[in-house]
Each structure stands twice: as C-alpha cells, then as structure tokens.
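Dear support,

I submitted the protein below through the web form. The confirmation email said the job was done, but the results page showed an empty box. After a refresh the structure appeared. I'm attaching both so you can tell me whether what I see now is the final result or a partial one.
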Amino acid sequence: MTRGRFAPSPTGDLHLGGARTALVAWLAARRSGGRFVLRVEDLDPPRVVPGAEARIADDLRALGLDWDEGPDVGGPFAPYRQSERRALYDQAIARLTDGGHLFPCYCSRAEVARSAGAPHGPGDDGPRYPGTCRTLSRAAIASHQRSGRRPSLRFLVPPGEVPFHDGIHGASSGDPAAAVGDFVVRRADGLHAYQLAVVVDDAAMAITDVVRGADLLSSTPRQILLFRALGAAPPRFAHVPLCLGSDGERLAKRHGTIAVRQLLERGVAASRLVARLAATLGLCGPLEALAPRDLRDLIGRCDLAHLPRSPSVIDPAGF
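What the results page shows now:
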C-alpha cells in the first residue's frame, strides 16, 4: 500500500502555496488508494508559533482534506510531531557515527561564509562547506573539546551525481558534494537538522511517496544519501512547482492575502479556493475554476506526470 504525507511546519498559518502542495499530496494518495499522513515538523522551538498547528489542521479540514494518521488521530507510527521523536534522531546519529558517515565540525556559519572559495549553495542552504574540519586530527579535536566549543555534526558527502526520478519533473539528479558539501545533521546547539529528521521520519513511518514543494528539490540528493547510509530505501519523490506573485517573485505577504484562513474569513468559499488552486495545476479549466469544486471529482484527474513543471502565478486578490 502506498503511504503519502503532508508535513507542515507550525511557524504560521497555512498559505496558498502550502495548501496547493497539500492538495496534490492528498489527491495522489487518494488516487492510489493509499494512506495519507499528517506530520508536524516542529523541530526548531523558537520558530514555532503557538496555536499554528491547530489552525493549519483546521484549515486543511475546511478545504476538505483529511488524513488517516496524525497528531490528532494517532496511528501505528506515532508520535507524529518531530519534537516528540528526538530519541529516534539520536539513534540515527549513533548509527551514522558507527558507520563512519559523520564528523565533528567546529566552524560557525560565519566562518564557513568567510572561507575562501565557498560559493553559495542552492536555495537557502548558504555557502558550500569547504571541508575545513573534515580531516581534523585527534589532537585538534581534543584541543577544541578542551576549549569548551561544541561542534555540529556533518555528513561526509561522497563525490558524484545522485540520480533519481521525480514524479513531476522526470529524470533528475544533483551533486551534493559540489553544491553544498558536507552538510549538518545535528547543530552545535544540539538540535537535529531538517535533512536528518525528515529522512528518519519517512523511513520509520514507511512513507512510500513524498509530494512536496519544488523548493525542496535540491534537498533530495542529500536525503537519498542519508537513506542509503541508514540502510533504508528512499521513497518516490514528486516536487510541486512553486506559486509566484504577479511580479514573478515567490508568493509572499507583499502580494496581499496569502493565508487560507484570511481568505476563508473574507468569505471565499473553500470549494472555490480549491477550484482555483486546481486550475493552476491543470486539473480543471479556467471556467471550471469559477465554480465550487468537489474534491472527489479531482482525484481521477491528478496524474503527477501530467502536472505543470513550471511555477504558477497566483493573484490572491483574484480569489
């Protein structure tokens, strides 16, 4: 049985781009007759907004989306909040350490940025790590330890392309060694990194199909390497193109109302909102998008391979 998921971060209200990705993930799971999981990615406590998790769940339900497993309904792979799964991440760290995949790094982000020949990585990944601590001697590590400086842990990235098939974009690949270098799996403050947590959770929850935003496409090769290092099979991936404002930039608050909740409170019918999002995905035509839409009507239309590969322009005022 296929198992899909939607994994929002409770750092604010559900926005149109997130709703659009959730819609595709839900449709793909329901089309396959599989199970759909809601997982809350609340790894970074300072960024979590009180009440955001409940509001996101309420907004998803308002759009007609449901889930078979999640924080509020339980399930065989509970808990479904990352903040409650840290012991699993520690176990993965131990396994990766035993396998020789990790090394301590005493560089700060500022030091990495200042390093000569450290080009910027893709997306928000920051500068490429130049390998400063990759070959530290035992004496150098001991010296750092005596100074009280706490290290992050980085994954030792092998050279070369990592190919994969994307359900929307087709044949894809990336070279993590060239793009980002050895990446952090546990920060110096002890918090586990997204790249590690998402892999551990997808493997532990037996997720077979990951549908998420295209901003995470560049993360996929790194995550495949982690799956392999942990002895787990990677899921199938499909990355939904992003939503852009009328100026061609990524949809943001400057473009107007982008939160689903705000639109619903403004009187926009949930079915109308779903229809407009479906139209940007080619699941219904422009005229159909003007009428309320029954989610069940869209399930048979959602073939990931036929979804658009380019970003869609969305004008929040048009809802």
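Response: this is the final, complete result; the empty box was a page-load delay. The radius of gyration is 21 Å.
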